[in-house]
Amino acid sequence: HLEAIADALLAFQHTVLPLGDEKPSAAHRSRLALAEAAGTVLAGGLSVLGISAPERI
Predict the structure, then answer these.
(1) Are 3 and 46 in contact (CB under 8 A)?
(2) pLDDT in tens, 25-46
(3) H, E, C per residue of the chain
(4) d(C-alpha 14, C-alpha 28), whole Å
(5) 41 lies in a domain?
(6) pTM above 0.90?
């Protein structure tokens, strides 16, 4: 399940941040929240497996 979450996150990670001078929209903020939540789930899952997760990648 962790691999599926990581794959799903990688599929849309480049659409999270606004481009250039574009102002962040509600959709951008929602995607950032989803990315943060996925990171929390991945870190927790790795911890259960006894694998330490880096603070940042």
Answers:
(1) no
(2) 887 788 778 888 988 998 899 9
(3) CHHHHHHHHHHHHHHCCCCCCCCCCHHHHHHHHHHHHHHHHHHHHHHHCCCCCCCCC
(4) 11
(5) yes
(6) no
Q: How confident is the model at residue 50 (pLDDT cuts 50, 70, 90)?
A: very high
- Name the residue range of residue 37's domain: 1-10+25-50
Overall number of domains in the chain? 1
Q: What does R_g of the chain's alpha carbons equal in angstroms?
A: 13
Which residues make Cβ contacts (< 8 Å) with residue 9, sequence separation at least 6?
Answer: 35, 38, 39, 42
**Residue 27, Cα to own-chain centre: how many angstroms?**
14
